[in-house]
Each structure stands twice: as C-alpha cells, then as structure tokens.
Specification:
Elements: E1 3-7, H1 13-19, E2 23-27, E3 32-34, E4 39-41, H2 44-51, E5 55-57, H3 66-70, E6 76-80, H4 88-92, E7 98-102, H5 114-120, E8 125-132, E9 142-149, H6 156-175, H7 210-220, E10 226-227, E11 233-240, E12 257-259, E13 265-272, H8 281-286
Parallel strand pairs: 1-2, 1-6, 2-5, 6-7
Antiparallel strand pairs: 3-4, 7-8, 8-9, 10-11, 11-13, 12-13
Helix pairs in contact: 1-6, 5-7
C-alpha cells in the first residue's frame, strides 16, 4: 500500500503512526511564526515526518498541487485535521480515494470544531466517524462510526485526546483490509454544523444558566478561552447548588460564587485578571482584582 498522510496538529499523530508502515509522503500546513521571536515553527506532523526522513509537502493551497499529488501513484490518502479543503482532482487521485477521521457522530457537527460544539451544546455522547471524503464538507459515506460518552467534567483537552485515539484505532482496523471496506451514505436527517471559533465566542453571558456557562468554559479552554465582558479570564468553574437572589453576574461571596441565569450559581475556582497571573477567586478579591461581594457589583 502507498499512502499519503494529510494532517497538521499533535493530536493527529496517533493516526500518522498507524499509517507509518505504508507512508509515502506527508502533507501538512506550512511553518508558521510562533513564540516571542516569531521564528517559523513546523507543525507537529511536519516535525514527526522530518525526524524520520519522510518527504514533507507544505502547499499553501492544493489548487495547483494536483499534478504532483497524482504523480505519487497512491493507493490511499488519509486525512486527519489537515486544515485545507481537498479539490476534486486530489480526491480522485488515490486508487481507493481519501479517508478522513472526523471526531463526531456524523451527520451531527459537520465542520471544523465538532469536539468543542458537542461539549458546549451539552451532547450526552459524541464519537468518531471514519469516512470517505467527497467535495461537500464532511458529507461523505461512513466506513465506520463509534460512539464515546461525554462525562460531566469532560474538557476539550481530555475529550479531544480520547476521540483521536479512538480514530487511530478505527483507522488501523480499516487498513488491515482496505480493499474490502464499504461505506454507508450519511443520514439525511440530523445534519448540524459547527463553525470556526473566535475570541467573541468566549465572552460569558451571565443570563445563561450556570450549567451552560460551565460547558462553555470546558469546551473553549484553552482556546479561545472564556472571559467576562470586563476581560476577566475564567479558567476553572463548576455549577453549585443554591438559588441566587441577585442580578446576573453578581459576585455573591469571596469564594467566587456568581449569580447566573434562572437563579443558578456558578463557582469560579480559578481565574486570571487582565495583566495578572492565574489565581483563586479569594486571592483576586483580596488583591483588588475583583469587586468586594459587599458592593454587589457585576463581573
């Protein structure tokens, strides 16, 4: 088997390692400026391949790359969080087409941020879909699909790692007999989409319930992070029992309990004021970064 791998971030590496025995070439995002010095930094997939002497290609787009891609005479291409849309000429080049690992139960959460949206929207479970790529975004037929529960304290970091490990396992099973893999068209009902996240998605609306804000924090950490309208970054929090008889967004006590929508209460346990280090809510109040609960001010 001759396989090209198309991926970029560190969480794609388990799938890349599965492909390694058949690997011909790696496609990944070009090096980007990073760090204080803004030196060009290779993607984790790029670095992995370079260390092993695997050919690496980093086109800024694939529109003009179809000829070079076809010349590889591939049996298959495996795509895992690559970050570029594949033109039809690329999709058609490998003998067995292009397979994609997508961390959701398609057709739910088509798009670039399915793990965050499953957490944020309160799904009880999510999963991984191994699919054949078609031109329409995440609309290809499913080779295999497996579910994964979402725990009550699940974070993006923990859930994302679990899903990509599951995806690598599914890929390994399918590659054991790639010629006989069949694919089932996706259901027409239940299609939902997720979008690229922006910093604006992380702004907390205290009119929402404590449970909704808790999910927002767990889904959007580390990026874009969650913050109040006044720039206070919320790192860790959890809903607690009790009914708040105060305006939404009011700091109820020095421990970090905040009034939320419907009278619910969110306990902020760790936060970061603008220009300061991360700290406990009590330290933030004592340090003057948060208003005294006696002032009944909103965050």
């Amino acid at each position: 088997m001759r396989i090209a791998f198309m991926g970029t971030p560190a969480f794609a590496l388990p799938a890349l390692e599965v492909v390694e025995p058949h690997l011909v070439c790696v496609y990944t995002q070009p090096p980007r400026p990073a760090g204080r010095g803004k030196a060009l930094q290779q993607s984790p997939v790029h670095a992995w391949a370079a260390q092993r002497g695997v050919e690496v290609r980093t086109p800024a787009n694939l529109k003009d790359a179809a000829g070079d891609f076809a010349a590889l005479n591939l049996d298959l291409a495996v795509v895992a969080a690559y970050g570029l849309l594949l033109p039809q000429a690329i999709l058609d080049a490998p003998r067995l087409g292009c397979w994609n690992i997508h961390p959701s139960l398609l057709p739910r959460w088509r798009g670039p941020t399915p793990v965050q949206y499953a957490l944020w929207r309160g799904d009880a479970q999510t999963g991984v879909s191994l699919m054949r790529l078609v031109r329409a975004m995440d609309a290809g037929p499913i080779i295999e699909q497996r579910t994964h529960p979402i725990g009550p304290h699940e974070t993006f970091t923990t859930l994302n790692a679990a899903l990509w490990a599951l995806g690598a396992e599914m890929l390994g099973r399918a590659l054991a007999a790639p010629e006989v893999q069949t694919a089932t068209p996706q259901r027409a009902e239940g299609v939902t989409y997720c979008k690229l996240l922006t910093r604006g998605d992380g702004v907390v609306d205290w009119a929402q319930s404590a449970a909704e804000i808790d999910r927002q924090i767990r889904a959007l950490t580390p990026w874009p992070g969650t913050r109040t309208a006044k720039g206070l970054k919320i790192l860790e929090a959890a809903p607690v029992e009790g009914v708040a008889d105060a305006p939404q967004g009011t700091l109820l006590d020095i421990s970090g309990r905040v009034a939320c929508g419907g009278g619910s209460v969110l306990h902020i346990t760790r936060l970061q004021p603008p220009g300061a280090r991360a700290m406990a809510a009590r330290d933030a109040v004592n340090g003057g970064y948060l208003p005294s609960p006696l002032s009944k001010s909103t965050l």
